[in-house]
Amino acid sequence: MIFRQFYLESLGHASYLVGSETTGEALVLDVRRDVEIYFQAARAQGLRIAYAADTHQHNDYLTGICELPARGEVKLLAGARAELGYPVRALADGERLEMGEVTFQALHTPGHTPEHTSLLVYDRSRGEEPVILLSGGSLLVGDLARPDLLGGPERTREAASELVRSMREKVLPLPDSVMVFPTHVSGSLCGGNIGSMLHTTIGYERRMNRLLAAIEQGDPDPLDLQDLPTVPPYWRRMRSRNQAGPELLGVLREPPALRPAGAARLLKEGAIALDCRQPEAFGGGHVAGALNVALGSSFSTWAGTVLPAGARVVLVLDRPSDLWEACWQLLRIGYDLPLGWLSGGMLRWRTEARPLAFLTQWTVHDLRERLLSERGLRVLDVRQPGEWRAGHIAGALHIPGGELPGRLAELPRQATLAVICGSGFRSSVAASLIARLDRGPVVNVLGGMSAWKEASFPLET
Fold first, then answer.
1. Fewer Cβ in 10 A, N or C end of the chain?
2. What is the DSSP track for 190-259?
3. How many angstroms separate the CA atoms of 184 and 182, rounded?
4. Can you tell me the distance from the alpha carbon of 305 to that of 362, in angstroms, rounded to the nearest whole number?
5. Is the pLDDT of residue 413 over 90?
6. CB-based contacts of 438: which residues, under 8 Å, 6+ apart?
7. Are 346 and 260 spatial neighbours (Cβ–Cβ below 8 Å)?
8. Which of the four pLDDT bands, split at 50, 70 and 90, describes residue 220?
9. Under 8 Å between Cβ of 9 and 187
10. How far, in Å, CA of 418 to CA of 439, rounded?
């Protein structure tokens, strides 16, 4: 058996290629949208991609599964409960797919979503026991996938019960030696406390995963949903598009380099400048109305939080070599290719005497001093609920960053807002959104609550 894992830090997503050494066939699971990486891996191993499946219809990214049949003779698979707008072979609970020495057994494991199906993998060249559980969005490293994405409190309770039953009836009976490879891994918001390892084992989780241990011990209500991360707004658009089958990307055009005059014209016509530089650089001068989401491991999540659906985007980059990294991160979460990117960056924009905007940046020492001496100053904390409960600045207003676009009306208009997060990244995203919408004076606090704690300033819990 040939096995490969592909990790996308920006989405906390893992996908897989499993190949047969006897037949040369391969299956790809939980397909990301840029599918060339799978063909490259298969080519290197002398394999032919014959099958592809998604464990469930994802909420956090667009699948690339429909791209594969356009590139070759690939049969698409899905759990029998999946409701899809494209042709698939439905796998019933317990049904097996033979691929040379490799056998896949479908395990219906609802909870995260109703149709969720894990794949149990056997390598019969090594023995008759299962060797790998491709657990998708069910059992995660140190965690279980969240059950609250598809409805209100009643639906969440039903989904939580389904998830507990899936663990008790399908996962816990497996041998301790079975390796577990989830789809949602470190960096994903589909769990509340996902560990940093990219795979685990049934035995390790039985002993170290407190939720799984509680289920095994018979706890009737083992899931704690209080501190789950805020759901980014763009997630509401992903599942329905995945069910229908995302439109094929085809041959992608190269976003053109834009001189300042061309970029300014597009911005005047309604395009949004998405500034991918670090918060310090953004604060020191940017295109008026730009949103700041620094290119890195959280870019997809926060771009999808502040960019409206269908946004027409002009990128501002540190380096031209960053172009396609930013493009793919946007494509994976359902945005079109950018209209272009600012040639020469902010240096050319400045030297052509284009208008500049600035975002005031404070250190935590600046913030502490002003809180003690100034009236009309409010702290806006945009961290996740669990971070907030662990300790925050007295009197701060708490709106998680993922909820901010829908809760802007709650911001006080008279006060200067000092926006704070864990480090200064999320707060710069939030502050740029507030500044773009002209919701009043706004400041980004560099270093965030990490620096506030390091300086031993007071906290409230």
1. C
2. SSSS--S-S-EEHHHHHHH-HHHHHHHTT-SS----TTPPPPPTTHHHHHHHHHH-PPP--SPPPPPEE-
3. 6
4. 24
5. no
6. none
7. no
8. confident
9. yes
10. 13
Average pLDDT estimate for 126-140:
97
Radius of gyration (C-alpha) of the chain in whole angstroms = 24
State yes or no: pLDDT of 66 exceeds 90: yes
Distance CA 144, CA 76 (A): 27
Q: Which residue's structure tokens are 């094929």?
A: 248
224 pLDDT above the threshold of 90: no
Q: Checking phi first, is residue 111 left (phi over 0); if not, alpha (psi -120 to 50) or beta?
A: left
440: pLDDT strictly greater than 90: no
Arithmetic mean of pLDDT over the chain: 96
Residues 6+ apart with CB under 8 A from 50: 25, 26, 27, 73, 74, 75, 99
The residue-averaged pLDDT of 235-263 equals 96
Distance CA 382, CA 401 (A): 5
CA distances (Å), origin 175, targets 132, 180, 247: 10, 11, 41
Look up residue 383 and give its two tokens. Answer: 């961290």
pLDDT category at 209 given cuts 50, 70, 90 is very high
Tell me the backbone φ, ψ of residue 244, rounded to 5 degrees: -70, -30
- Confidence band, pLDDT 50/70/90 cuts, at residue 240: very high
Q: Which residues pair with 134 in a beta bridge?
A: 119, 181
Neighbours of 366 (CB within 10 A): 15
Name the nearest CA neighbour of 216 among 180, 171, 251.
171
Name the one residue in this structure whose structure tokens are 């300033």. 457
Please state, in angstroms and rounded to a whole number, the distance separating the CA atoms of residues 370 and 187. 34
Q: What distance in Å separates the CA atoms of residue 376 and residue 292, rounded to the nearest whole number?
A: 25
